[in-house]
Write a structure and sequence with these properties.
This protein is α/β, with parallel strands linked by helices. It is built from 8 helices and 12 strands. Helix content is 37%, strand content 22%. A hairpin with a 3-residue loop joins strand 11 and strand 12. It is globular, with a radius of gyration of 18 Å. The two termini are 32 Å apart. About 2% of the residues have low confidence.
Amino acid sequence: MDRPTQRILLVEDDPELGAQVVADLRRAGYEVDWQTRGTSQHEDLGATYALVILDLMLPGLHGLDMLKQLRVHSDLPVLVLSARNETPDKVRALQLGADDYMTKPFWPDELLERVRARLRRPVLARAGRLEVGRLVLELGARKVWLDGREIDVTRVEFALLSLLAKRPGEAFSRAALVAQALDPERDGTERTLDVHVSRLRKKLGGGDMIATVWGIGYRLEER
């Protein structure tokens, strides 16, 4: 049986570049919708698209603001494509939930390979259920099981664990985890993050399921 065609949303205001990206993606077999302004209508994007390719400097809503609002509603993969190549811009985009960041100008073949790589790794399991090795998370019910036994976790611990579980094996920076899982007005520090990770590790049996990536942060191992 043929796989269904995957649909991509491109948000890019440069007419020449946008047309080229659309043409390249369609030749590669993807369906593509293209919009030239940043918008705040995000509730249904995850049901429609497999990936968003997002510029930052957009008319209407700025790309980072669009990304931030999108993450309230969806874990839809987002690849940022921007002429801004300063490290703080890249870090901020990743902290807000971008899955990848490419700078302009770029090679079309590299963009296609990054798209393929991201689409090979689905973010969410069916019906809001994540399974990573011995670990199961029910996202809607905010419940966690390990080896079939329910684990009692706090709101912050669940947010942290679900972020790691959506991309098992990938290293998350401590700054990104602080920005996405902790309340910046109450406990948004890397030191507090380390405390939450330590407690979560104990609840998961005290092993190395949540591995430390030295100099970067943490990742969830499939054990």
